[in-house]
Amino acid sequence: MKAGARKFVSVGFATLMLASSLSACSSKGNNTSDNTKPSGSTQNTASEGTSKKHRTLTVEVFDRGKPGQPDLNNNYWTKYINDNFGKQYNATVKFVTVPRSQEVEKLNVLMASSDAPDIVFTYDAGTVYNFVQQGGLTDLGPLLDQYGSALTSYLGEDILKYGKYNGTQYAVSAKRTILAGFNTFIRKDWLDKLGLPVPTTAEQFYDTMVAFKEKNPGQVSGVIPYGYSLSSSTPGVGAIMEAFKPSNLTEKQFATLQAQSVSMPPWNLPGYDKAVQYLNKMFHAGLLSPNFVTDKDGKLSDADISNGKVGAFFTNWDGPYRTAPGTYNNLKANVPGAELIPIDPWQNDAGNHPKQGYSPNGLYIFVPKFSKNADLAVQYLNWMADPQNTLFLQNGKEGEDYNMVNGVPVQTGTTTSGDKMMTVANNLDYDILSNGIELGDPQKNQAAISAGYPGYEKEVENALKVSMTENYAPYYYSTPNAADAKYHSQLTSLSAQLLAKLITAKPAEFDSLYKSSVQQFMDQGGKAVLDEFVKNYDAQNGQ
Amino acid sequence: MAKKGIIHYIKHDFLLYLMLVIPVAYILIFKYAPMYGIQIAFKDYNIFKGINSSPWNDFETFKQVFSSKQFFQVVRNTLVLNGLDLIVGFPAPILLAILLNELVSTKFKKASQTILYLPHFLSWVIIGGIVAQLFSPTGMLNALIADMGGHGFPFLTDKYAWVGTYILVGVWQNAGWGTILYLAAMTGIDNQLYEAAEADGAGRFKKIWHITLPGIRPTIVILMILQLGNIMAINFDRPFNIQNNLVMDFGDVISTYVYRVGIQSADFSLGTAVGLFQSVICLIFLVSSNYISRKLGDDGIW
């Protein structure tokens, strides 16, 4: 009996144990919601902080697993934070690491077990809304009034509104300073070799890809004209859909049918079927990465680009120029003379090149209800909003880590390794309040961006310009979509499966398969999500 | 003779019982105590209120589970994959053990045993990587086929072919390790039997059929019962690391579904309900296969 029962119990209840041990812990978190009472005095935080007893503030930090990264809880940046904020407010700031690629799962577990740090954040709007609905977040409104004057004036109502739920400020959204989204890149040297022009329409792009395939200008084995990988977390067809989307959509159509940014394919958007079919055609002509389905994290695609096998691809607007994974650097090392340029081939029926970008909010930052340090958390964010601290956290020390050139910080290269290593450009993992470089002036930010990519200043400037041309942001909803919060991750993984099947489907079966795929998507929650978007849109616009 | 009380036995074998306390405590604390949490399958679990304060929901979770098409698909896939594992994967270690047992050279036997065990110690994450390298459309195997003028075979991208890949990779990983129990059972077979059979003129196959196989029959039956009991339980790593978006019709199983719904979507009640359902089915399978084997005259596991 013992052996059997043990095995059976261990396998069968594995999930239960996880869930239950978490929940068992969480009961202890009940009695905590009271925030530390604000001390009698009014505004000035600094003097107030020092008078209190020493406290510990815990803050989430993304662990990107970058080779050679320093201890994320003890390095140059955490020392700066503790030496400044810590001294001033008589507090120790401790960082709790969360793996970047599993931030939502890990956050759910931390919240359920009441182990979450005082300051937590996520990019996933649905997750925040789930927490709000379950009553697990601290109302930051009164605290912002009391301690957050610099913070509120930095973010402004335009950003703060993204963290309001039915009028209550449960989250503070970071400010996204660069709204550019994505770019399509092509191998300029291949075009030149074949004497081809830069493609400006979807048809021309297709013909160029065929030429790449047939003439193989790079003389590589296994040429991949269009590098593509189907991600499970952000499945989609990229900017191709812009070429097939009608230019005369009404605002309501845009708001409801393409409500979500890149994380969910807009299955009901007119023209989306044509965009998927375009990829299907490319797949059958052998123009697409043959491994696009098994290459779930895009690593293989990055490697193919680096090895010079890929003719064109679609990625983040600055993708190839980033130091990690460093595709352009590697490509140039592997293929001397290789040249990548951002292009604009996805012309729509009105001759325009719209491009999906980001809305001005970034990370959602919030404080769990069981946190005893909500006031200190707001003070911390308020401290971070000080331009001086932002400048330091994003760039380091002047004269040592960067030099001011024309009012723009230029990195000296000290922050790429060792104790000062930034695991992401501009240290966004510590400077959580700004998504992207923040110099307090959009013009300067734009100029500073290119300085952040040593060796590619000109190219990045151009890529940013291309990506920002006719850039549009997702529609702003004042009410979150409850159905989306519930179904989002299941619909995302379903979408990835459907796209995989559609792209590899026999061309003759495409239309019927597309219809049944959309039906399946709608049945498994897509309809509820769409209906709620329509309802919210009507309510918001007084219809 | 007067029957001695339990106290007597405990006193008598005090140290043995003391040693038993540790595993018993382990099982109680880590296997039974957490079952307290099963109740969230019957509740609208709110992670901030905790288990006790969450309201009962009148079997709403189970209604939701059984009305979802996806749920039946993952149950079907789990049964199919485990069933195939039983048909293909279960006899493999037996065959291998017999082959190893027939080897004459001890050195060769030891070496091949060690090599056969090795895959068992690889994590599925690594095996998943190896599988992708070998079997993907431009993987090593397909490159080889293409070089020899053949057409690539969709080992991972066609759902039927994927099932084959999944099963065979499982056999590769586990067959060697599975031989251990059978080989141990074989050493327990009386050598006189073989000598007598030889004297009667039995060949190699006759000896295997009439002596070796009956000799390890109890072991086979017990392992069979255990595997049948687990037919609804599927390990997480193996399907998760080998599956891809094209084969989810067959590759999505209960464990990956529970992970996606329960942890990724934070729908803990739903994940628990599915896990509970799975456990109950496993229990039924285990008890009934044990019952059948006892009826057929073999020893069960209890």
CATH class of the largest domain in chain A: Alpha Beta
Q: CATH fold name of chain B, please? A: MetI-like fold
Number-wise, the strands of chain A total: 16
Terminal CA distance of chain B reads 29 Å
Q: What separation lies between the terminal Cα atoms of chain A?
A: 66 Å
**Proportion in helices of chain A:** 40-55%
Shape of chain A: globular
Strand portion of chain A:
5-15%
Low-confidence stretches of chain B: none
| Low-confidence parts of chain A | 1-50
Biggest interface, chains and residues, is: A-B, 63 and 63 residues
Oligomer: heterodimer
Number of helix segments of chain A?
A: 21
Mean pLDDT across residues of chain A = 85
Radius of gyration from the alpha-carbon trace of chain A, in angstroms: 25 Å
Number of DSSP-assigned strands of chain B? 0
The secondary structure category of chain B is mainly alpha
Say what the CATH topology of the largest domain in chain A is.
Answer: D-Maltodextrin-Binding Protein, domain 2
Largest sheet of chain B: none
The CATH homologous superfamily of the largest domain in chain A is named: Periplasmic binding protein-like II
Characterise this structure.
- The complex is a heterodimer of chains A (543) and B (302).
- With 543 residues, chain A is α/β, with parallel strands linked by helices.
- Chain A has 3 domains: 11-178 and 361-388, Periplasmic binding protein-like II (D-Maltodextrin-Binding Protein, domain 2), CATH 3.40.190.10; 182-356 and 474-540, D-Maltodextrin-Binding Protein, domain 2 (3-Layer(aba) Sandwich), CATH 3.40.190.10; 392-454, no CATH class.
- Chain A contains 21 helices and 16 strands.
- Chain A has helices at residues 2-12, 14-26, 45-51, 76-89, 103-112, 125-133, 141-147, 149-160, 188-194, 202-215, 240-244, 251-257, 272-284, 299-306, 327-334, 374-384, 387-395, 442-451, 457-468, 482-504, 510-540, and strands at residues 55-63, 91-99, 120-122, 164-165, 168-169, 171-176, 182-187, 224-227, 310-316, 340-343, 355-356, 361-366, 402-405, 408-411, 434-435, 471-472.
- In chain A, the strands form 6 sheets. In chain A, strands 3-12-6-15 form a 4-stranded mixed β-sheet. Chain A has a 4-stranded mixed β-sheet with strand order 8-9-7-10.
- In chain A, helix 20 runs antiparallel to helix 21.
- Chain A is globular, with a radius of gyration of 25 Å.
- Chain A starts with a helix and ends with a helix.
- Mean pLDDT of chain A is 85; it is low at 1-50.
- Chain B has 302 residues and is mainly alpha-helical.
- Chain B has a single domain, classed as MetI-like fold, CATH 1.10.3720.10.
- Chain B is built from 16 helices and no strands.
- Chain B has helices at residues 6-12, 14-32, 60-66, 69-89, 91-102, 106-117, 124-135, 140-147, 159-187, 191-199, 204-215, 217-229, 237-242, 248-251, 254-264, 268-295.
- In chain B, 31% of the residues are buried.
- The model of chain B has no long low-confidence stretch (mean pLDDT 88).
- The chains are: A alpha/beta (543), B mainly alpha (302).
